Amino acid sequence: MKQAGEVTRADVLFQAGRTIGVVEYETVADAQNAIATLTNVYIGEHKMELRNNEEEIKHVRDTASVRKVYVGQLAWGTTWQDLKDHFKRIGTVTRADVVLEADGRRSKGYGFVEFEDSDDASRAVTELHESELMGRRILVRECKDEY
User: Fold this and answer.
1) Residue 85 and residue 15 in one domain
2) Terminal CA-to-CA distance of the chain, rounded, Å?
């Protein structure tokens, strides 16, 4: 996926017997390039089908009251308390988690923050996306509870 542009996040999900990859690019142009150049390319025996999921994201936003945000690009030493302290200026944080490596010693570089109010979660995305935390520019996106 990197051959199409700068990848900022990539996840592999297993849903209903299918393997789905979700790739986030730094720019819209990179994402469009990936769709144009990598659709129908094979990985092993499997042909990739790429598409822009903006419509799916819009549907989720229109039908769900999102109170949780994904936070990426965290420094390795970031703790849940660091996340909570950074986000509490927006509103009441009910939970902050940093996803840790299997040994439990180091951050995997991402986490989640849940707010008491969905409006605060939306404000966090608007106001804290690309803000600096522990010397790193962080990514902040809305997410649903199943992430």
Assistant:
1) no
2) 21
Main-chain dihedrals φ then ψ at residue 92, nearest 5 degrees: -75, 120
Q: Round to whole Å and give the CA distance between 125 and 115.
A: 12
Please state, for a pLDDT cut of 70, what percent of the chain lies above it. 84
Token couple for 68: 């949780």
Distance CA 121, CA 125 (A): 7
0.85 exceeded by pTM = no
Structural domain includes residue 67: yes
Encoding tokens for residue 49? Answer: 């089908």
Domain count, the chain: 2
Summarised one tens digit per residue, pLDDT across range 71-101 is: 999 999 999 999 999 999 999 999 999 998 8
Cβ(140)–Cβ(115) below 8 Å: no
Q: Which domain holds residue 67?
A: 63-143
Distance, CA of 26 to CA of 137 (rounded, Å): 13
